[in-house]
């Protein structure tokens, strides 16, 4: 176990508290292993009827994976792969699968920053998951910002969002709040931040089996018309329904609205290659189940580190902080179908895939 993952049981509810506040609870391999061990132990524990995951800080549930570790490990052995880096993604994706199919109510307090890997541990399965947001929630799959792609199951939960909303979120890496998260299907209920102490008291005093219904009754209704994604839905579906990233940008160029022009400016900052890979991944993910999506992502992440785009993105935004990534290739018109296809070529034969047993 790790000091950054605290666990206890209250009234037949297993409570997990992430406690790495200085890093906004960014996931390390030790944290992934602690979460997995805890959830596996509680899965068959007759004394636990539900699980709640939250944070010791209102700033974040989890800001993602530890990208400084990604950069250090990936840069050391870019072609062969770092064993620790390989273990991290294999075990993280297996954890995402465990959470998605968890047989007991899995309740995530998505207060503060919930991005990337944080989304992977918040997006419980649709049958018994409950995702709670507040006015402080900042939700995103921002991997294209650093030359990666929206992983941790993003190829499934983004591709199954209504219309082209998932394509918009994945290709832009845009950050959304509570109303948009509920509208797009990435959260379930809203609780004001001022009511979180009362919610925690409710969790402590309500039997685990009754917890989801009790939380839904406790939650506040969200005001109608509060979602910008809902307001922009027609434009998003129209522009992001185009059959390539280049066509999406061409469509946006014809739209003088502030939303379209802001979106276009965002896309011009992203990795042309990884935007194209992300779009292709979402197209493929729409036809796949959760396990196959995670297996696809596991191959993609190996390819991305081999290519080096993510190493350059992390260098520019996190290490050197010059905010001037040198993308390869630098322009969208230089991205070929063959370049994108290479990312989806099998890395391992099926029988040797690290996630073959999902």
Succession of helices and strands: EEHEEHHEEHEEHHHEHHHHHHHHHH
Q: Structural class, judged by helices and strands?
A: alpha/beta
- Give the count of structural domains: 1
CATH class: Alpha Beta
Any guess at the CATH architecture?
Alpha-Beta Complex
Mean pLDDT: 93
Outline of this structure?
With 358 residues, the chain is of the alpha/beta class.
Task: Describe this structure as you would to a colleague.
It is a single chain. The chain is of the alpha/beta class. The protein has one domain (5-352): 2-enoyl-CoA Hydratase, Chain A, domain 1, CATH 3.90.226.10. The chain is 46% helix and 11% strand. It has helices at residues 29-43, 67-76, 83-100, 117-120, 154-157, 165-172, 178-184, 196-205, 211-218, 228-231, 233-240, 245-253, 258-267, 272-285, 290-307, 309-319, 337-344; strands spanning 5-10, 13-18, 50-55, 60-62, 106-110, 113-115, 129-133, 138-140, 189-190. The radius of gyration is 20 Å and the shape is globular. It starts with a strand and ends in a 14-residue tail after the last helix. The mean pLDDT is 93.
